[in-house]
Queue: 4 jobs
Job 1
Amino acid sequence: MIKSNILVIDDDDAHRTAMVVMLEDEDYDVGEAGSGEEALELLGNQDYDLIITDYKMQKIDGMELLKIITDRNPLQRVIMVTGYGSIEHAVEAIHTGALDYIPKPVDPKKLKNAIQKALEIAPTREKKKPQPDKKPLSTVHFDEIVGKSKQIKQVLKKVREIADIDVPVLITGESGTGKELVARAIHQASKRSDKPFIAINTGAIAKDLIISELFGHEKGSFTGAIDQKKGKFEEANGGTLFLDEISTMSEAVQIALLRVLENHTIDRVGGKREIPVNVRIVTATNENIEDCISNGTFREDLYYRLNVYLIELPPLRERKEDISLLSDHFIHHFNQEYDRQIKGISPEAMTILINYGWRGNIRELRNVVLRAMISAKDEIKKSDLPINTIKGVMPDEEIRFQAGMSLPEIEKESIIKTMKKVKGNKAKAAELLGISRRSLYNKIAEYGIEDSKKG
């Protein structure tokens, strides 16, 4: 079994040495740094399961160091120790990302308990997948979530913040942005990580079967129920249940789910007794649930029970700096899976990928890379990319003009297609068209364009 690796940072030699000796006696693998600068140098070359840092230090103090560390790696576990204890400092440290805040002189028992708790909820090195190419700390790589953009770092900071707080989480974002991966990351970073993670797409199951799929059924409870069957809630007991596309759930399912959240019990179809379940629920949708509430297809009380903590995933077009990293990640994965030896992507091809709109987001990028690797020889070139990617448009985004069309007709068609692309968002449409919002409103009225989300 691999020893937990802890870095102790303190510019007071006596305090640092005493802590190092104590931790080594507890059979931890301990590193030490006498300043924030020395710590950052160590962190550039080695990963640590836990960092314990003093608050008051010269040049780079503990709080500044904490901000740098959590910005580089939002999943890093940090405990703050200080002789300048105050409620304000404690709140600031926890808000910035520290797991705990311990005053000096350090109570050994309190410190040991804090360390044990931190290591229990941290993803251990035993659980990490082997990564031949070590990523720098400026790149976040948690399981299949890859990126270095500000947006993805913020997402993973939220994952770390909420992982060990056992409340429902709602994940929103366009199709293909990685909602299930984020749900898995929450599970893996939580105290439930050694229990099941069960994922179910509620939109992919027939509505008359979803109740049985979620809650199970007894033998003979309906035609075809030849045996007793446990539902997803029982399968996930002790762990995490991820429900995707929740906007598709019928009212009956919504009521049953609300009851589980309130009572922590389920009823199998045809069952005569309540079954207690201990499940953390994470849900996801690519729809605007508030619109669903307005049109009466989603219960408002259930929405507020599920939306205790919200994580919004950015579309890939808003995190373009991650496209190169994700592409390399997929190439490495497919090289192993299909025994290929593609070395990378040519600069010309990468420019095309970066400038493409990625309406299908990460899922679409993954498929494009795979298709390109099939024809690629040594590296992926422009000629290996699907034609729509090279053109930079999706087929139904193309605007086809015929000879003889008047300029107003061309303008009207452009506005209609743009409005459809942004799902009726007039501010975004005006920005893409390069006109003011007022001008867009005037054009919509002038051409009699239907004012709807579909444009």
Job 2
Amino acid sequence: MENRAYALITGVFIIAIAAGVLLWANWLAGSPVQRLKYRVVSLRPITGLNEQAQVRYRGIDAGRVASIRLDKSNPNRILIGIEVDQDVPLTRGTYAQLGMEGITGIAYVHLLDDYTSREPPAKGRDGVPEIHLRPSFLDALTDNAEAVLRDGRVLISEITKLVNEENRERIGRTLSRLEDLIINLDISAKQLPGFIERTDARMQAWLNEKNRRNVEGVLANLNDATRGLPALVEETQQLVRDARALSTQASTLAAEATALARESQGTVHDVRSETLPKVNALADSVERSARRVGKLAEALERQPDSLLWGRGAARPGPGEEGFE
């Protein structure tokens, strides 16, 4: 009887211990968390990322990595299955990057959002929403460094091709010629002050008082000739107008004389006393005008430069000062 009581007490005690452990475990676990499945698609290497790695949303722990595999239809794509808490607001503007845990090299999936869209993420062929992986700052820096290294290698190769033996000789000859040129420029620079002084002395000698007076006289004559040109042109035009008018009057008077000659002889006296004196006066005026025009033409023929410089002083006659 005592053995049965002892066994019963032992069993009840074990059951109580087991129930306490279950209650303590449930208290530690808290309420169960509901998570949703997503897929991160990467076209880049994901070094350091393993299953059960953390998934963070803007730095907050939001889930874990469930699986990592290659896409059978496109081996360039790496499919990373993640489980994210259902209260995390993922949208089509959400993208993923790989983060690193300090210096351990352990990677985690970092979810960020550019807020370009508030719609849910697009789903793949199997209905799982997909999020694309973008290069992080370190990835971009690594890519740029690789590109710089490639460009540097190309540049060094081209420089090596450029600086061959023949081009080195050309560069040496060019530097030698530049050195000779610099020496010549130095010599010329030393001679330049003396050249400037000699030029200045020659200019001062050429622009002496006599030459300056001659230049001033030439300029004065040029100004006088310029001022006289309009009057000369006007006088010539007036002579031409007078000659034309006199010619017209002569023609008119000749016609009148012919008409009067056909009339009675009583009018002959009028022609002789009135008309012929007018004709004679007209002829004298035309002759004087013609002489003036002739003298002007003769003077211009002898001294064409008189239009610019004016008439020169008349040569002194016998008995005048300066006559030779």
Job 3
Amino acid sequence: MTDALAHFINDAGWLAPLYYVLSFVMTALLPFIPTPLVAALGGAALGAVPAILYGILGLGLGAFVSLNLARRLGRPIALKLVTPAIWAEWESLLGVRSLLVWGVIFFILNVDFAVMAAGLSSLRLRRLWVTAMIARFPWLVVSAWFGDLIVVSDTVMLLALVGLVAGGVVLGKLRPRVRHWLVRWAERHDPSSSARARVRRRSRSGEGGGPSTRT
């Protein structure tokens, strides 16, 4: 595997960083490809520091493509299926008008599906782009470092994958609790959380039927 990757980089020559950057754009168009895998391969092929520097450019281009596709194509279709008033109520109730909430989502999920979903909201694309870059940057650094230090031979890679599987099982158990804690933390620090709380209280008060009368 590493020999094949080395031959690819040698054959690509000076175009190797360009291919690496364009791989992030490919993950934006095909969100099922994990971005950390691209960063890890870049760390193995280019080294950690170049992979991080070129990865910043790749992440920026990928987020730009995802957000604009969702905003220019996906949002008009969604507003035709659902009225703008109902869509605005959903955004307020779900808290997707908060950059802080989206930052938590970007950090926890770290997939281009989340970035594309954010483009459907009414938030400014520039702010969403900056939020996505800040939240996903730590994953880029860790993945590039992992690729540079771990992906050096098939034996080391196999041992690392076994450790990752074990760690993934543990994280899978803890992830719902951590996600719940982060979302609650974001809601407490979100200025619009009080408005969402009022919407929820009105919704709950309407479930109990009409007002009771005293005799």
Job 4
Amino acid sequence: MSEELAYVLITPYNLLKSRTGGIVGRLLSMADLALAGARMYAPSDAMVNAYAETIAGQEDLDSALRNAFLEYLNDYYRPENKLHIANRTMLLLFRGDNAVEIIKKEVAGPITSDPRGDTIRGTYGDYIRVPGGEIRYFEPAVLIGTSTEMVNSHLRLLADFASSDGGVLEHVMSYPEGSNVETTLVILKPDNFKRQSSRPGNIIDMFSRTGLYIVGARVLHLSVAQAERFYGPLRGLFVDRLKTGVASRLADSLAETFDFDIAAKDYDAMAGILADKNAECEFNRIVEYMTGSDPAGLSDEAKQQPGNETCLALLYQGVDAIEKIRITLCATNPEKASPGTVRSVYANDLMRNAAHASDSPDNALREREIIDLLEDEQTCDIKEIVDSYLAGKAPTQ
């Protein structure tokens, strides 16, 4: 069985209805596949035309269903569409053995009028066909390819339009004049992707309650160099913030070691000597957690290599977005997080606390630049992933 790359496009209507988390949760929990990439698109007419052309030639669809797909693309995926909504669509790439068939049969599911909730389309899609064959209502929930050949042609299309029609969609949504519109960064941390689980989708669903819109997405494998830049401001903070903890640990360790009393000021003095080393140790622990590599002793070249851990970066946009996301995420320490917030439910400790969120507009821009999630991106990871995959599938001379 050979490794395949498969794709899923979450439809604009399901994004608008904040069903994204539920769909992502199904994809990650029902399929033993690796999340390989993510990107937002706002398809142009040219991209819709190219995609529709592949559907029109799909002979394994019955004519009524084929026409329903073509009508759906024309009605809801174009910049000027029937619902007068932003035509945002989220692309997710999955890698693994038999990925195309798994997504098609086990996860996305078939288009059927049988109302069952065992697949994504069964739960989030609608297909109402009356006796005689006429389709009265159609919402596929996700778009997928139904064969390896079709998927590969769609991947080529998605890669070709990735830069012109995809990326960060900060100018797609509309807001009342004078609104304090912000774009903030959220990163779902490595613990969410350690095992086959709906946890990432559940967290996205919790963030959806803010009413904000996802306008950017990228799968991250942070390098040590990126993580060191990203968390760099913590280095100085750790020296002062952790100093009291160092003094307490020294007191606990040394109280029974010596036969004389040690004054609190002496513990403080010893903590001052060790504060820098302790801060560096804690900083390195965070970098290792986010990347899978201990930065101590690594060469500059090794620090530039992609890490072994998977994270998912999302950009949320809307009125007062930074505050709304921070409230939903809640306190860094999960023991102090309010009930029903992301960290109260999914965090384990101060470091493994489910997700990161920017705390200011300036930091959001700084962090986005580090992970290349800006409108003027330096690299297009989806194009790189697809190009590499399809190059390996090309026949050799």
